[in-house]
Design goal:
globular; alpha+beta; 2 helices
Length: about 90
């Protein structure tokens, strides 16, 4: 036990909230990515979110869809598309 009555094991790392702004790191870490696509849907133009929390990815996705209804975007985990906007 540490001073103050706290166990040295009571402090947990918050690994579930990891984020990055680097697409390659996101793929390497198997993060969820919210990506904005070009109008023609051929290339990613911006990484809106990349992190280990699917819930946060969905919140970011929903917020962008609400405020920019004509945007094209996806939630992906590497090559697997989990959600896309506009819905197909």
């Amino acid at each position: 036990m540490k001073k103050g009555g706290r166990s040295r094991h009571s402090k947990m790392s918050n690994w579930s909230d990891e984020e990055t702004d680097e697409p390659l790191i996101a793929d390497h870490r198997n993060f969820y990515k919210v990506e904005k696509w070009s109008r023609d849907g051929q290339r990613v133009t911006e990484l809106l979110f990349a992190g280990s929390s699917l819930d946060k990815a969905k919140r970011v996705f929903d917020r962008w869809a609400k405020h920019r209804p004509r945007i094209r975007m996806t939630i992906r985990q590497r090559t697997r598309v989990l959600e896309e906007w506009p819905p197909q």
